[in-house]
Amino acid sequence: MNSANIVKQNKIFHFFACFLLVFCLTVQISLTQNPDSATNIPRTTQAETKNNRATHNEYSNQEKLNRIDAQLKYNDSIWLKRYDNFRNYHHISNEISILEKTNLESTLNSQESHRLETLKKQQSLLEQYRSKPFGELLDKPLLNEPPIINNPFGIFGALSFIKHISSVRDNMQKNKYDLDQLITTLEKKSEILQAILKDNHLAISQKNHYKNSLEDVQNEILELQSARNIFETTMDVFGKDSDEIIANLEMHIKNQILKLGYIGIGILISIVIAFALKMLVKRYIHHHERAYTTSKVINFFNITVIFLILLFAYIDNATYAVAMVGFASAGLAIAMKDMFMSTLGWLVIVVGGSVHVGDRIRIKKENEVFIGDVLDISMLRITIYDDITLTSYRDNHRAGRLIFIPNNYIFTHLIANYTHGDLSNIWDSVEVCVTFDSNITKAKNIALEVATTHAKLYTEQTRMQMQRMRDRFSFVHSVNVNPRVFNFIKENGMEISVWFQNYAYGTLHLKSLIAQEIIEKYLQDENIHIAYPITRIVYQSQDGLSKQPSDLLNSQYHTT
């Protein structure tokens, strides 16, 4: 059974093999009899494909050309706009020439005449683009004269000028970039037009159109390339000139900064020295008023030194500067005499030391007398505080004012200083008038005793202060500072005048105390009678008052 199956399978295999062999031979014979039939279909397909490719390339180039034209149409390049104006000018000129030539041959109608007039107006508007399409774009930018840096404020002007140059250069770089981009775009357009013209399927009118377009584009490229060459030269020249200007300005800025640094160091040294001197004054001068005045003098000289440093640092011709300062000072001295005299008076006061802050001074202006304590001595005036004094009681009837005295008064008015130098006490007096029949000697002794008792402290202080001043004034050792008493004949009695040392800043207190005690002791003594205004009235019958007779009306007036 197995052998029968194997035989059967072999027969089937042989049958299929024979069938395949017969089929292959049939196909080969058919191909041998028709050799061109195998290539007919592929050849037809290749021709159609080639034609399709040509048509596709034509459409592709046209699309590219349309895109470039649209790009150029909406391009804001100044180069393209100026070249369009240049091209429009020549186009209008050609059209005008044609119309004028026609006018010579025959008369123009109204429409053509209007057209000619319009074209001439357009031509006049575009006249500047006749020969130079790019005009001032190719010219080297004009720059103003570089600023002169002779002071720190000139640095700001120089930096602004450098910024302006950088802005001009950036603008030129931008124009150069726009020009390069425009030329690149036009070169692409030229390549596309050349590719389109290679197509043999174009109509004659299309070829002429594309040829004219190609010619215009090539002319435009030539103009722009020529402009680029000129512009590159202009940029190179301007770049070198601007680099030189910027280098000079930067050098001057650097020098000015260094100069400013040196000036700053000099001013700082002056301030440090002034500060050190003030510290020494504060440490070694314990008198507050003198320390205050000395500090003001140091400030004045410090400011003067700083002013001179700045003056001679920024003046090129020192001799000229000194001469100008001299003439200016003379003119100002005439025009502002009082102010300069006050400044000079301040120098005299400060250097001479006649008045210090804290001194009590007396000054008279016209008929009014002012006594007060010095609060401040500025360059123009002395400020004093009007304290309560005997003068304010008798004459002014007011006190507590701030009085400003110009410093030039030291040259024209008498200024009395009650507390000059080491002195703080002054001579003061109390006057009492007694009748002629009083015991004058006893009255003088009482007054002297009272004054000696109450002024003892101030007498000793004055004696010590005089001893300290003997190196400056030779007479002080012989000055008698003990209380003294005098008597003078007056119209209505004998005036007892006692003199004693009193504190300059508070005279009224001791004066009142001594006067009160003298009066009290005079009233206790029967031999001393104080003379003062009295009135005696005597009535007589003749006077019509019907009173008892008396002496005539008699008035006796005694003044003290």
Automatic annotation (TrEMBL):
Gene Ontology cellular-component terms listed: membrane
Record-linked PANTHER family: MECHANOSENSITIVE ION CHANNEL PROTEIN 1, MITOCHONDRIAL-RELATED, YNAI-RELATED MECHANOSENSITIVE ION CHANNEL
Domain Mechanosensitive ion channel MscS span(s) in chain numbering: 338-420
Segments passing through the bilayer: 12-31, 260-277, 297-315, 327-355
SUPFAM superfamilies: Sm-like ribonucleoproteins
Name under which the protein is recorded: Mechanosensitive ion channel MscS domain-containing protein
Keyword field contains Coiled coil: yes
Pfam family, one: MS_channel_2nd
